[in-house]
Description:
Layout: E1 33-36, E2 64-65, E3 72-90, E4 104-108, E5 117-120, E6 128-145, E7 153-154, E8 156-163, E9 169-170, E10 176-179, E11 207-208, E12 215-233, E13 247-251, E14 260-263, E15 271-288, E16 296-297, E17 299-306, E18 309-310, E19 316-319, E20 347-348, E21 355-373, E22 387-391, E23 400-403, E24 411-428, E25 436-437, E26 439-445
Antiparallel strand pairs: 1-3, 2-7, 3-6, 3-8, 4-5, 4-6, 9-17, 10-12, 11-16, 12-15, 12-17, 13-14, 13-15, 18-26, 19-21, 20-25, 21-24, 21-26, 22-23, 22-24
Amino acid sequence: MKCIVVLLVCISIGWVHSCNVLPGAINLAKSGDAKQSSTYAPRYSAQAAADGNRATNLLTAPCASTAYDNPAWWQVDLKKTYSVDTVVIVNRGDCCRERLRGAEIRVGNSPDNNNPVCGIINDFSNLITTLCCDGKEGRYVSVVIPGRNEYLNLCELEVYGQEVKAVAGNVALLGVATQSSNYRSEYGASNANDGNKNANMMKGSCSLTGSDNPAWWQLDLKKPYSVEKVVIVNRGDCCWERLQGAEVRVGSSTNNKNPVCGTVTDTSQGTITLSCNGMEGRYVSVVIPRRAETLQLCEVEVYGVEAAVNVAGSGEATQSSTYGPMYNAATAIDGNTNSNMMAGSCSHTGNDNPAWWQLDLKKPYRVEKVLIVNRGDCCGERLLGAEVRVGSSSSRDNPVCGVVTDVSKPTITLSCNGMGGRYVSVVIPGRPETLQLCEVEVYAKI
């Protein structure tokens, strides 16, 4: 008997991602390392599901199979971070297709199988299932059967996407510099971020303040960055000791009081590198505190990548119903994180099934994370099981970024790993419930 394989191809309406597997596209799983919760027998190793063979008879084909585990899982390590568009799953064909029912496909950077959900297999009538992941970013792709003992049979899993290359460049060149004063006009603040590393002050390539207390230099990067390191080229022709004790600060304030990335403790080297380990901010300052001093900088380089910012405030919110006028959907994006419902800073639906809240961001973004401030004066447990969804559909059936499984803390953060979409929804599925949100923040790169 011939087995007819039906390939379901779903199209993502997203702005840059599609579920179409283009001709010549590379299956990333083949070059990854696979493992699983257990191995039913040696011939059913995890790697058998990432060998490029789509044959579906478990008795004769190279398929992966776990033992009867709870949870049963399979995972491939792609070795690098990718923006995953599509995951294709080939089920067992000779029998037992129903074992894959409810399997969750997860994509992210954690090796612990708790990454955001790309999709769930609810229909196992087709041998081949194609799931749209809408650009979810991650190194690990997992298949997990939650909540029951089961055998996990996979005859093939294919992953399609593009490598994420976050190159940290010198972003100081893009910024605007100011300083506490100018010793002379030719020693302006912009000399320290012009790309010229000449350390001889007499060549006119360095900035120089007067004898100020405190003396400071500040760079406005124009938007927030995740700063990995700051490199300072000190004056080299004389007087390099003046930089001793200078603090490098990174943050969102213009007042030079942001968190300290590092302090200059050794001026014997012409170039000083301070690691900031991903500190986020728009402003980078060099400050000499607690004494009158002249600040001399022959170059300041700032290495980092664009940081995610909260874009929720520019969107438009709606919800399934409104419990009372003061509890409208917009109160969850007004910037007020007060978690006392009685203060009028939270949204509140009626007892709906499903209860939902949705944010239209007006244009597509790559969403890195969603932060939810739960109700704090009572009833926080009502948010249990809420799904956060991100995508291009206004019907709240977009891919799941994450599920609220713990309401013991006032603020819940769900990592979306760069999911693409215009709409962010919070949905409580499967039961009548009131949905209460005291604030929703959506962090994306702009």
